[in-house]
Design a protein that fits this description.
It is a single chain. This protein has about 50 residues and is mostly helical. It has helices at about 1-10, 15-20, 30-35. Helices cover about 40% and strands about 0% of the residues. The chain contains 3 helices and no strands.
Length: about 50
């Protein structure tokens, strides 16, 4: 998996969130994390919590 993410240009720490998150939980990346891990080129507006 690391090699695949590396080939896609995704930062190494991204996979750690998946490994550390319990199977019955979801981890939601912040816009800053998405940019840091190179999943997006710039954050986009998201729905506000509770809407």
């Amino acid at each position: 998996m690391d090699r695949h993410l590396d080939e896609m240009g995704i930062e190494n720490g991204f996979w750690l969130h998946a490994l550390e998150t319990p199977p019955d939980r979801l981890y939601h990346l912040t816009p800053e994390e998405m940019t840091h891990f190179k999943l997006v080129t710039e954050p986009v507006a998201t729905a506000r919590e509770g809407e």
